[in-house]
């Protein structure tokens, strides 16, 4: 006769697996230098999701463990995890999601355009920052605000660095504590990243597809 694990046991197994994955990732990131910058940004909100959801689950099934794992910056971590649930958020309708994006845009305009004393200088100001890594565009300030759940005031270099560092310390401490005692050691996808993976290459098939995006091109230039 076989028995199925209880719901609590399944939850604990999932928490353990997620924690071991993140522990391997953080270990690999430490030794990857600046090659880990983009992957860390891509996994940031997922890490926030795992931390928030696992801590909430432990609060129900193992309150003593949850109390021992209490972490700071909980509001920032909770907000950031929402971007993972953009298309399956049961609490928001499409109109509310659109309103969230409009709010981000308006916050940027207010912070970056309306803070000049000379109205005549406003046309030369920008309401969107572009972030590059080794010559490749990887994000915009709107995208960063959405994924990191930070207001535009926090995107200033003198503010963003210290704030993200403090949150990262809490994330690392939490993941390390949860994964402690589990066989988390092993390889991570970051271990397979090479210098060549960051080379900027233009892989667009211009001969085949450029006309589709620029119908004003002469007919002869549309041919493959």
Name the structural class: mainly alpha
Q: Can you tell me the overall shape?
A: globular
Number of strands: 2
Rg from Cα: 22 Å
The main pleated sheet reads as: 2 strands, antiparallel
Low-confidence stretches: 219-224
Q: What percentage of amino acids are in beta strands?
A: under 5%
Topology order in helix (H) and strand (E) letters:
HHHHHEEHHH
Distance between the termini: 65 Å
Helix content: 40-55%
Strand arrangement, major sheet:
1-2
User: If you average the pLDDT, what whole number results?
Assistant: 79
Number of helices in the DSSP assignment: 8
Question: How would you portray this structure in words?
Answer:
With 224 residues, the chain is mostly helical. The chain is 54% helix and 4% strand. It is built from eight helices and two strands, in the order αααααββααα. It has helices spanning 7-30, 37-61, 63-68, 74-80, 94-112, 141-148, 157-179, 206-213, and strands at 130-133, 136-140. Strands 1-2 form a two-stranded antiparallel sheet. It is globular and about 65 Å long. Mean pLDDT is 79; it is low at 219-224.
Brief sketch in words of this structure:
The chain has eight helices and two strands; from the N terminus they run αααααββααα.
Features:
2 strands, disordered C terminus, two-stranded antiparallel sheet, 224 residues, mainly alpha, single chain
